Amino acid sequence: MSDPLGLVGSGGATPHLPIRPPSQAPKGAGAPDFKSVLIDNLQQVNEMEQDATRAVEDLLTGKRDDLEGVILATEKADSAFRMLQSMRNKVMQAYDEIKQIRV
Known about the structure:
59% helix, mainly alpha
C-alpha cells in the first residue's frame, strides 16, 4: 500500500502539513460567496419540490404509473427541505449567539 502524503510512515512524528489560520486562507477570485451558494441551494430545493408535486399529480391523473419513482421524488424533496431547514436553524443559532456578545 502506498502512502503518497507520507502520513502512515511518519514514525509517530506529527507530519508537517501546510495548515493556515482562517484569516490567512487564500480568497479565490472565482470562489462563490455565501449568498450565492444559499440562493443556489434554495433554487435546487424548490425544483425538487416542484418535481415531486408534478410526479404526484401525474400519478393521480394516470400519466405515470411508477409508484416507486413518485415515492423517490417525494422523499428526495423531503430530505432536501429538511436539510435546508436544519441549515436555517444553525444560522439562526449562530445569529442568536452573536446577538448575545457584549461589546
